[in-house]
Amino acid sequence: MSDSDSQGWGTATLGVRAGQQRTPEQEHAEPIFTTSSFTYGSAAEAAAKFAETEPGNIYSRFTNPTVRTFEERLAAMEGGEACVGTASGMSAILSTCMALLDGGDHIVASASLFGSTVSLFNNHLSRFGVSTTFVPLADLAAWEAAITPRTRMLFVETPSNPLTELVDLERLAGIAREHGVMLVVDNCFCTPALQRPLALGADLVVHSATKYLDGQGRCVGGAVVGDSERVGKKVRGFLRNAGPCMSPFNAWVFLKGLETLAVRMRAHGENAAALAGWLETHPAVERVYYPGLESHAQHVLAARQQRGFGGIVSFDVVGGRDNAWAVVDATRMLSITANLGDTRTTITHPATTTHGRNTDDQRRAAGIGEGLLRISVGLEDVDDIKNDLARGLQRLE
């Protein structure tokens, strides 16, 4: 299939069809190329491929047909020129920063980033002279005020984890362009099925493929999507030399996930909306965070910027940590795990899991209290999800 064949296809169609190049065997489904290396017909051919004067596979650390199919498919779905698959979502973020930043550069990032991303910026990139300023996600004036002559990157998750807060991507992209800095968006919660940051002006998109792109909690992986220069050459160049690569088997699993991504995201959203509405009326719940609710401060922005509201619902219970833990411990069906994006509904206490390594001040700045619980709403019958949560919530009334 040529690139011209896929012009005008919708996201769901791209998720099923894009990127596949059939072998002479004429297989219908994509094969898994479980090989570490590739052979050549002559010494001259080997030299040409290593010199990159002739296209072709070299070594599966950075060129593998199964990984390439995943990369081309995700790039097509996000509307990017190039994609690089990586070993995890965090390695996608690390690869982006190491490939595109120098010592002395400065990042402006959302204060509500995933805890491991905060640790990467504060504890590791700082050792190489890259500094970070954290600002409130939705405060565009704060973003602009934090930019300095050394700023090279704005980094954001929208919606945020776990409070599903948003930033206006078109306006933030305008600020980035005005100051000549790149805007990188973690699109983990929405995926290209619900949001395409590049079309809204972002420069790069990063993913934890572990989450919704897989969709069944089977493999760990990540991806960076963007233009052919920064992603196709620089990020891929870092991957080639540093080695945080995606395995062919995991790439094949993610390809199967992309095929059902659009329908799964719709189903996750339908269940999440029903659960959020039910939680909002429960006497043991102080507040619900879900962009699909009209009570969400950025509901209108979410409706404009996204094609759905996603599957993450967070809520504060009365009584703080003890009561939050009691709700978690009372569940019988929900999985107690910090992972998300699975067909199975998961529940976690962010203050002591995903954001447990953050300081108290960092958690307060991100709005993460001791009574907060995060639900990644799965594909079970929503009444069963409600009933499982009700076991603990009814004890708090």
Question: What are the defining features of this structure?
Answer:
five-stranded mixed sheet; Aspartate Aminotransferase, domain 2; seven-stranded mixed sheet; Aspartate Aminotransferase, domain 1; 12 strands; 2 domains; single chain; 397 residues; 39% helix; alpha/beta
Describe this structure in words.
It is built from 15 helices and 12 strands. It has 397 residues and is an alpha/beta fold. The strands form 2 sheets. It has a 7-stranded mixed beta sheet, sandwiched between helices. The protein has a 5-stranded mixed beta sheet with strand order 8-9-12-11-10, covered by helices on one side.
Entry summary:
With 397 residues, the protein is an alpha/beta fold.
Second rung of CATH, namely the architecture of the largest domain:
3-Layer(aba) Sandwich
End-to-end Cα distance, whole Å, is: 59 Å
Q: What is the alpha-carbon Rg in Å?
A: 21 Å
- CATH level 4 superfamily of the largest domain: Type I PLP-dependent aspartate aminotransferase-like (Major domain)
Give the overall average pLDDT: 94
Treating each run of at least 4 consecutive H or I residues as one helix, how many helices?
15
Regions with little confidence, pLDDT below 50 for 5+ residues: none
The CATH topology of the largest domain is what? Aspartate Aminotransferase, domain 2
Helix and strand composition category: alpha/beta
